[in-house]
Amino acid sequence: TSQATGCLYCQAHMTNLSSLYQASDDKIRAVWSFETSALFSAAERAALRLAYHAALVPNEASAADFDELKRHFDDGQIVEIVATIALFGYLNRWNDTMATTLETKAIHVAGRAIGAVGWVPLCPSEVRYPPALRLGYRGGDWSLAFSIGGAAVYYPYNDSYCTARPFSNVVVNN
Fold first, then answer.
1. I need a surface site. Which of 23, 45, 113, 117 has the fewest CB within 10 A?
2. CA-based nearest residue to 120, from 155, 148, 153
3. Please, is 95 exposed, middle or buried when counting C-beta atoms within 10 Å of its C-beta (0-12, 13-18, 19+)?
4. 47-99 pLDDT, tens per residue?
5. Are 146 and 133 in contact (CB under 8 A)?
6. Quick one: residue 145, left, alpha or beta (phi over 0 = left, psi -120 to 50 = alpha)?
């Protein structure tokens, strides 16, 4: 659910927890391709599919999702899977809304395991929500502004948070 909702805090912590439970960085990185990756079993695919569908708004969990779960899990296990999905749905909303500060350990593990697929920590003090997308002409160049942090891309900085670097508009201006 953390990836489907975009909660970077929860993505980092679930990456750290998965690593503690001995999931390889390759498997953690491949979670978005769980449907086709050989790193996931049929049972894991069924659980991840339900988690993804349940995280969407509106919820897209279906009878087919539960039929597939029943092939691999008993009723008690299915209740635990759904409870976990619901808990993380709550945590995703809470941590994003409260701009929860991300701890150093989670930043390092997530940077190592999922940084290559685009994860970067946002600095809570820099999170703001201007219009979703703006295109403008400023200082002799066309510029693009994204919904979080203005016209910047965030990169890890030291052992703490991240730093914003101006979005490169070289493609737009050439």
1. 117
2. 155
3. buried
4. 999 999 998 888 899 999 999 999 999 999 999 999 999 999 999 888 888 87
5. yes
6. beta
Answer for the pair 23, 48: CB distance below 8 angstroms, yes or no: no
**Token duo for residue 107:** 């930043």
C-alpha distances in angstroms, 14 versus 50, 75, 88, 141? Answer: 17, 25, 10, 40
The pLDDT value recorded for residue 43 is 98
Q: Answer yes or no: is pLDDT of 169 > 60.
A: no
**Hey, what are 158's tokens?**
């030291």
Give the pair of three-digit tokens for residue 125: 């003090």
Cα–Cα distance measured from residue 88 to residue 73, given in angstroms and rounded to the nearest whole number: 20
- Collapsing DSSP to helix, strand or coil, 57 comes out as coil
